[in-house]
AraC family transcriptional regulator
Amino acid sequence: MNHSRHRLIRHFLANLQVNVTAMSYNQVWSDWRELDYTPDYNKFYLICEGEGWLKIDGSEYYPIPGQWFLMPQGVKQSYSVTDGPRYTKYWCHFTAKIGENNLFDLLKTPYFIDTCNDREPERLFRDLLSNWTSDFATSPLLLKASLYNLIAYYLEHAYGSEDGIRLDAAFEPLQSVIAYIHSHYRDNLTVRNLADRVHLHPNYFIRVFKRHFGTSPIQFVNNKRIEEAKWLLTTTNLTLAEIGRSVGIPDVSYLSKLFKTMTGFSPSAYRQSNHLLQVNKLQE
């Protein structure tokens, strides 16, 4: 996977918002069957035992134990029991949004992975189920954390599958903008010159960019600049003025204000805290 595509996927995942709408572990009913419907939520099925049939976007599957299926939101699908023993499975209905978009509209992933007798997926689903049924005040946070872990496992293993992970073709123009930002963040970038690269009116470009990334183009540029400033603060002895010129924010006062707004630290405090961390690691 090329660097610009990899960076774009990382940005998507950094802005991912998730929510569990239903889940359980059970054997399906004898009348478990629905044909050609389009859900407004994503589904995970981890098959533990039994037999059955799925149809996702026109392709038919007969999942076997150990296979983990993703059935994305907005995709026509079907399911049914067969003549054999009914499925016992972990299942989860969930949303996964980046801005206004479903994650799996942006990232085209395989519809299933083989867990290869790995016990980790079952453990992850058990954690999710435990948090789903918990009455603790913190359980909504833990539930989201469990779902993030499930999605991360699925995506990591989808990377290594035959089909891998692809970006939706509609994002090729925006991918070029992201690559340009990463190469030219030191320059005086404006919305107009970014919009010109994809031949869009600046106002429309801002709306498209924010709808897909959950942030404005200039906020995205500043995020990149601050990430580079953090790296330079912790790996060099450059002054703040030198760092500002290096990352495209030569106004030291503005750089300090923006840095604190985005990190909660002044640049000097950030440098000092990370210096102390490195000293402590050396002493361990």
In short: The CA atoms of residues 195 and 202 lie 5 Å apart. The longest helix spans residues 139-159.
